[in-house]
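Record 1 of the preview.
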Amino acid sequence: MKKRDLTEGSIRKHMTNMTIPMIFGILSMVAFNLIDTYFVGQLGPDQLAALSFTFPVIMVIFSLVQGIGIGATALISKSIGKNDHKKAARETTDSLILGVLIASVFVVLGLLTIQPTFELLGASDRIMPYVEDYMTLWYLAILFVVIPFIGNSAIRATGDARTPSLIMLFAVAINAILDPLLIFGYGPFPAMGIEGAALATAISRALTLVLAIFVLYKREKLITLDVLAKSILYGCWRSILYIGLPSGFSRMVTPLASGVVTGLLARYSESAVAAYGVGTRIEFLASSVLIALSATVGPFTGQNLGAQKYDRIKSSIRGSNQFSLIWAFGMSLLMLPFAREIASVFTDSEDVIQYIELFLWIVPFSLGFQGIVQIINANLNTINKPLQASYIMIGQNFLIYIPAAIIGSNYFGVAGIFWSISITYILGGVISMIVNTRIFKRLLDTSVSLKEP
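->
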């Protein structure tokens, strides 16, 4: 295994070297969805609506898969930090086996519940055939989604963020090539419509599965073929799920809270809803660096936790939090003078432009605090405190965001709803820092690594 030792050397250099490739990896996932949306949109409004209906379901599944990936990263990185390659290989292999089982469950449940699920979401009889065409293929290929994600998480645990990002960029390139060929039919390729988009996704993801497994097996030597006792296998799964399930479920609350806020905005106008949709996309792009930074925290914390170098963990979190605030302040200063110009890129509607301007005047300065939430969430998961991490996320959305949005809406209209976003981010960041400080004080006092459950 080519270990990238994160327990020695410059903390800033390690974090920078991992964060930069992750930025491209995150943006590649955005590009993947945009490419699908662009080509399916050319088929017609019904097909585009069908694709839009699939996003919430896919997001829920991805939330759970991300949780499993976070759990795997936490375990594997700690073993690498302890220089226990055999244990790291065992945990990687067991994580992939768990991924196969989870994917199998998703296939069966997904195929059996397509119609009732999407009827519940509001898909009409006219839209439903397109939804079924897309999701049937997507569910059958879900193994190609789950395994590469877990595999890339294992690669990142070694300190290598570049290879997973290149694998994701490769998937985007293949998908971009196959989408028009399979959707519209060129040369020997049949015109499959929306099914072609699902097949393009399946093929591109299948290739990433091959690449991820090849890297793990050949280069990293993190896949073992040794037969293992069931008790050890189940113990590894319990450790992964102990972190993965709370993390996965807590990630689901954000789209639920956003749904409530969208409903509040809909009381005012469709323009307010449209502006919120554009604003959140601008927010994601502005925060992509911070999301990438939070993704590097797991491997760094895990390796140093395994090596019992707690001061390096503390320093990395402090430096990451400071960078998050500085970055958000800089992005806010950049967007404020050009808020109208930025808004005009997305729409010609004067009403929507005014609401987007309002969003950009209120929200961006608080993004640094939300970055802190993500950074500390990753840190808490890795030091085996997933419940505390999930409580922060759930509390931030249900105890702060939704009530603040309702109060803001009642007293200050759309501006009040947008201010509720900033208030939520700021309070979430402050609470996260307090929780993390208390937990870390106990960790430093004991000066021993936390025991796995």
